[in-house]
From TrEMBL, chains A, B:
DNA-binding region listed in the record: 32-51
Listed PROSITE patterns: HTH_TETR_2
Protein name (database record): Transcriptional regulator, TetR family
HTH tetR-type domain sequence ranges: 9-69
GO molecular function: DNA-binding transcription factor activity; transcription cis-regulatory region binding
TM stretches of this protein: none
Key words, A-Z: DNA-binding, Transcription, Transcription regulation
Keyword DNA-binding: yes
Membrane among keywords: no
Family matches, as Pfam families: TetR_C_11, TetR_N
Source species taxonomy: Bacteria, Bacillati, Actinomycetota, Actinomycetes, Glycomycetales
Length: 192, 192
């Protein structure tokens, strides 16, 4: 805690922005801590002290740029929550898509990155989805123990990734709306 | 046509096997046509004559290794077709998962590979899914114009990819069975 307190939120944001710029331009695998230190006008010692290594630094930078889908979303209906949480991501453009796909790929051969990504990106998203589903169950929109619950985080993640791979098109608001109405809500037993 | 007829199916299979070995070991981006030629004891001229370049050669090799999910599947029920088509892939182990994810990632920055992957891998899968859904509609299992049809190929693809990214675990037969029963079939209006 004490070690981290030496960076102001502004300084941290500058470092994260430098990380994201470098990863977008060169790809996760090709970025070095020295490059980040130079780009953010700091030292590798500072970077290691605060983030332990490249995996945590990069994943924290991606998380800082864009909170997990559904975090802090509460529109009053399950459909509204899903729409708000997913369209925010696609409307920011293809950059987040590229960052997520690139990290997911690098993580296949980098266990530290894989762990950092699951702890810092996937786990908060899964908890946020659980909160949204608990509220929907409390409102009577779904059964609290609907068996499809376990798949919802992966479906939302997939809705942002699979369409581009399969068709060459980035998902847009219309695609996500149809996906939520015709796949996610029916799986949860909600019919439009 | 005439140009291709000079390779026997056995010779083609050997070349494809060499391609898959090299891509698994080094990653798509790092494999050169010269390496493939050496490994498969042929010439780069032969490789270019038959496959035009690395994108088509690699994607054809991956397709040769493993046909698209659902191709040639016809069990007599929609649930049976989905199960047969997807579990065949996970039961072959993590190698196909790695090959698919690696290609999808490389395709993000390689338009020729992106096109080859969609034409040679994704399009046949989409047609196979359509055939399976048409048969299910003819049997009365689903509506012929169920609005979730457009998502089925991407759902099946996602079921093989998203779970690993999110949880660190490869999907197994149990996971896929639950996914089909609790997500894909309900989305199509089929209740267990």
């Amino acid at each position: 805690m004490e070690r981290r307190s030496r960076l102001s939120p502004e300084r941290e944001a500058e470092i994260f922005a430098a990380v994201v710029r470098l990863v977008m331009e060169h790809g996760y695998e090709n970025v070095t801590m020295q490059q980040v230190a130079t780009e953010a006008r700091t030292s590798t010692a500072t970077l290691y002290r605060h983030w332990n290594g490249k995996p945590r630094l990069v994943v924290e930078a991606v998380r800082h740029r864009r909170p997990a889908p559904l975090e802090d979303v509460d529109t009053g209906s399950l459909r509204g929550d899903f729409l708000a949480g997913t369209t925010a991501i696609v409307e920011s453009g293809p950059d987040d898509h590229d960052l997520m796909s690139g990290l997911a790929n690098a993580a296949r051969t980098d266990p530290d990155l894989d762990r950092a990504q699951r702890e810092i990106l996937a786990a908060p998203m899964r908890r946020a989805v659980d909160t949204v589903l608990d509220r929907a169950a409390a409102r009577g929109e779904i059964d609290a123990d609907a068996p499809s619950r376990e798949f919802v985080p992966e479906l939302l993640f997939a809705s942002l990734i699979a369409h581009k791979v399969h068709t060459g098109e980035f998902p847009d608001r219309d695609y996500l709306t149809r996906f939520i109405d015709h796949v996610v809500l029916p799986a949860l037993g909600v019919r439009p």
